[in-house]
Specification:
The complex is a heterodimer. Chain A is α/β, with parallel strands linked by helices. Chain A is built from 13 helices and eight strands. Chain A is 47% helix and 10% strand. The radius of gyration of chain B is 19 Å and the shape is globular. The chains are: A alpha/beta, B mainly alpha. The complex binds iron/sulfur cluster (2 copies).
Amino acid sequence: MAKKNYAFYPGCSSQKGASASNFVTSIGMMCDKLDIQLNEIPDWNCCGASIGYGEGGELPRLALNARNLALAEKNLPGQDLVSGCPACWLSTRETAERLHQHSDLMAETNVALKEAGLSFKGGVKARHMVEVLIEDVGFAGMKAQVVKPLEGLKIAGYVGCQTNRPFGIAGESFENPMYLDKMIETVGAEAVSYDQKVTCCGGALAFSEPEKSQKQIRDIVESAYDNGAEMIVTPCQLCQANVEIYQSEINKKHGTKLAMPVMYYSQLMTVAYGGNSKQAGLDGNIIHSQKLRDIAAK
Amino acid sequence: MSNQNQQAVARYHNNFLREVEERVEDGDWVKMCMQCGVCAGSCPLGSAWEHTPQKIFMMIRAGKRDEVLKSDAMWMCTSCYNCIVRCPRKLPITHIMHGLANYAHRLDMAPKGQPTRVIAKLFWDNLVKTGRVNELKFSLAMYFKDGFVQGIKNAMAMQSAGLSLVKAKRLNPMEIIGGHKCKDSSGIKKMIARAREIEDRKKGFTS
Ligand code: SF4
Ligand code: SF4
């Protein structure tokens, strides 16, 4: 099969040694198996994330995202921009759509871009990795590569906010999207019913409002336990980091014994596709899933 | 009162709605709100909001300028986008909350030391330097935002989580002496400066 080519925008948290570096590790083998070729956008920059609004304002954030779009348009013409990070995807897509709708913003953004020697014509589509998997590969295509079904693994599919809103995945509802459950079942695991599927983890406010965010995180983890899950799976880097990292803090403060592994869908897929625990980035987790490690070692 | 704030007050003569329409991101949407209350029940940190988005839109129309801009309500927004997908009038509520917070910050009316205001600025300053966010410098800056002693306490409190991230190779201590950056970081700086200059002119931040 011919490879499908995409302009890849990894984002800051996916850099080597950063908080989601194991995400990038885990998509390597998954993409190989699915004939997805990711071509990194040369010299890409930070998207500004949502929290950038406080100091950044409107046009500086549009310019940051337009720079990545312009670099993709120039260096990887004809390819869709793809990011695995919901915040990067959201910022980039929001920018592309706003510039498309408002010619004055497009003109002003291009004045700023000129300072960095670039211009943006508006010809790049920004997509999420999950969209590529669902729309370009399809569930049947994802399933075809499974050699080690994750049988007996009970998983809570945690979609979170920004993969789901405001854009979401075409054809899915905002209140109860089903695609992540379907992906879990595609690799042979069981998706438990899960009432915190689209609850906010607190996002960047996990840093600035720890008590309030940790209440959200506690609900997210406890509901997974209540529904019999052995693991939470998510498509979001910030959800993954917040929900995994703060469990020990919650335990310390409240005497709970939370120890729920929180993984990326791509880690599941890599193991199901026959990858070992290194290829799946399992050593990058703080809370380990022995079951998943055992399957990977089989 | 900051100079820019005085100028804004003089210019808009208590027509706060018009001020918001002209100077706040997506502010021209505020008049479309029909006060149905759907957004008021949508925020994850709901009980922490001094005024709900619904109430903020009402207060803007009622000209309650100080009460809105000095409130820490908008700073409770987690950017979850619940409100946007639910609003029957399709108001870009998230953007308006961000826009109001940014406007209050630029006028220096936002609460001093408001934690999200502080980290939002740290985050932006961190990214402008190199074009990319350096997570270690960002975390250290965050721990020390309340001063040195509190910083040590904060860092100690999160030490176990920090160390496990280092072990899992997800927080690189080497970033402190270099780390990731864009090749054209100088072009990025100039680009951001130019964008800010255009925005300041449009929104009346320059005299
Ligand atoms: S949901 Fe929309 S129309 Fe209803 S109160 Fe909120 S902003 Fe106004
Ligand atoms: S995006 Fe902000 S304003 Fe909208 S529901 Fe979420 S927290 Fe509330």
